Amino acid sequence: MLDDSFSDNTDLLPTKLEARTWKFSHYFSIWIGSVHNVPSYVTIGGFFALGLSIWQVFFIIMISSIILAGMMALNGHAGGKYGIPFSILLRTSFGRKGAIIPGVLRGIIAAIMWFGLQTYAGSLAVTILIAEFWEPYPTLGADWSFLGLSLANLISLLLFWMINVFFIFAGVDALGKLTKLLSPLVFVVFGGMSIWAINLAGGIIPILNFSEKGVEGNSILIILSCISAILATWVAQILSVSDVTRYSRTNKGQSCGQIVGLLITYLLFAVASITIIVGSEIAFGVPIWNVLEVINRFDSKFAIILSLLTICLTTLSVNIVGNIIPAGYQLASLSPKRLNIKSGAFIGTIIGLLIMPWKLMESPTSIFTFLNMIGGMLSPVIGVMLADYFIIKKREINLQELYFPNSKSRFSNGVNWPALLTTLFAGCISMIGRFIDILEPIYNISWFTGIIVSVVLYLLFIYLSKLLHIGRTDKDLASISKGG
User: What is the pTM of this model?
Assistant: First the structure.
């Protein structure tokens, strides 16, 4: 018999065939907002501050995009095949009860923190946008502030938050239309910004000849840490990509759409971010990492308004797809009788404001710290999921174990202890450099450390648990239940 909680909440059930309408074009454009947003440009500015050359930064961005595209396609396979959301997919690797811990890490901690960060970033664009129509707006309230926010920034934050809430309740169709609208806008706006920066710098040659002070220390390790930093911004989306691939008509559509879309989008991002950041530094004499400050220097009012609207829409897109939908699914899975995806997402948006995300945006150092911590905590979960689905289960899932409480589970007491122990140990190894100076390089590449260590440890623990019969029922571990 189906779990009673799913009778009350159908959001967590496998997507019906008639509802699986997303195709290549949807997945081509779905992550554009996740690439072209304010924190992404600030991150690239941080790379130049480390002394990296433009070619090193270009290499970092493109290698990151290749790794990212592959990870998205791989971890999205189960969602595309079975139509199940991330919060349910976790049960296949961690067990019904064991899935709670990694689910909370991704769906509540990472998703809600990123929602708050992106909402604040979007609100900054809203402030500049309103000021284009009402010049005194930024000085509204004079010296009044609330927890470090001026009155204008507080109003903008609440306005942008309300727009996010609107799209939560508007549903998947509205989201699909938003992502399709973004494709041409992003290519026009950021392509135009790149041309503007090149002209401002006196042509492409000064940008290509631009030289920073040079890196201090091991350049290879610094490059790896920068790649890890970019991938760490995506670790949450990689984990919960099944929340969107569950709507795909075919797995080929979601995998090809994501791979092609991410590679092309990141190529534009690499060119745009480098030319905008370097070109503005050549022209103005100071490094400008925040793309909003660059936009604010445009001479054309129309260009400023169009650019700011695009920034707002890209930020809105990544917030809904990458942050608040996963948070809604996770909160709903924790209390399916009381919450559905929309009510869970709404609660998540409130928490996202309460964490005061503007404090994270105060300096690039705090952002790098945040990215490494998120990567260190969540990348081991990715490793466990990939190893379990592709190596242990060979892409076959028994849906009855996920939805029917009386079905015989492979995991004793609903917990896959090898998966939980792997996540704990790999997470500790990834984070240990944060506290022990000599091991800091491990922490700086926490995304790679977490995944590699977790895959090796998980397969080792599974082998040992098979020998010792730990954490499993008396079912043969090697037998794979066929899924529908």
Answer: 0.85
